[in-house]
Specification:
Layout: H1 4-18, H2 34-40, H3 45-59, H4 64-70, H5 74-90
């Protein structure tokens, strides 16, 4: 079982490898939005929910897709996800 931090690291790695997408989920294997990348990572629904909840708490927004679509820079999205992962590793 993955930790929430591991799940978020995998999400950030996916975005770094395949690219980030604004305004849409994207397709598996290609650029994806933050929510799409979260959904792409292999894990359980519990792991997905924990990672999504941690990201929602960090961004102060209940809808990850809405937050993603307000962003204009992939690096902001990716570093936000990485920041949450780092914070969780310290707990």
């Amino acid at each position: 079982m993955k930790t929430t931090a591991d799940y978020l690291w995998s999400t950030a790695q996916y975005l770094r490898k395949h690219g980030w997408l604004n305004k849409g989920l994207g397709k598996v294997g290609g650029p994806r939005c933050a929510l799409g990348a979260l959904a792409t990572v292999q894990g359980t629904i519990q792991e997905y929910n924990a990672a999504a909840d941690a990201l929602r708490e960090e961004i102060g927004e209940p809808f990850i897709a809405r937050w993603n679509d307000k962003q204009t820079d992939a690096e902001v999205v990716i570093t936000t996800i990485e920041r949450v992962a780092k914070r969780l590793e310290r707990k």
